[in-house]
């Protein structure tokens, strides 16, 4: 098997990191195996619960370099980095497998986006000079 070039690896890891911003994706990770991870670490297709797989957890730790500014500037969904940190917590990994918890996290994420956008608009309006 040929390993990806640095450019391809960068793109694949960026895509994977951004998928972590989706609570639904995290929920399905308890059943699915990411193709890049499979190829890179030779993970068997039969593995379903790979949050229990130490090799996968090490892969998530490796991906923490995306938190550095020179890499994070490419990320469109900064929640991905928050979820990357949350995946360190075994309790979170267990809970995200449950549909109700996934839905709650998704709802809270949506509320954050909604209010963050309103707050940015208010802040911009407050900083806009008035013509007198």
Automatic annotation (TrEMBL):
What's the protein called, per UniProt? Mediator of RNA polymerase II transcription subunit 31
**Where is it localised?**
Nucleus
Keywords, comma-separated and alphabetical: Activator, Nucleus, Transcription, Transcription regulation
Gene Ontology MF terms? transcription coregulator activity
Family affiliation? Belongs to the Mediator complex subunit 31 family.
Which GO terms of type biological process are on file? regulation of DNA-templated transcription
KW Transcription (keyword) present? yes
- Oligomeric and partner information: Component of the Mediator complex.
- Please give one Pfam family short name: Med31
Any one annotated GO CC term: mediator complex
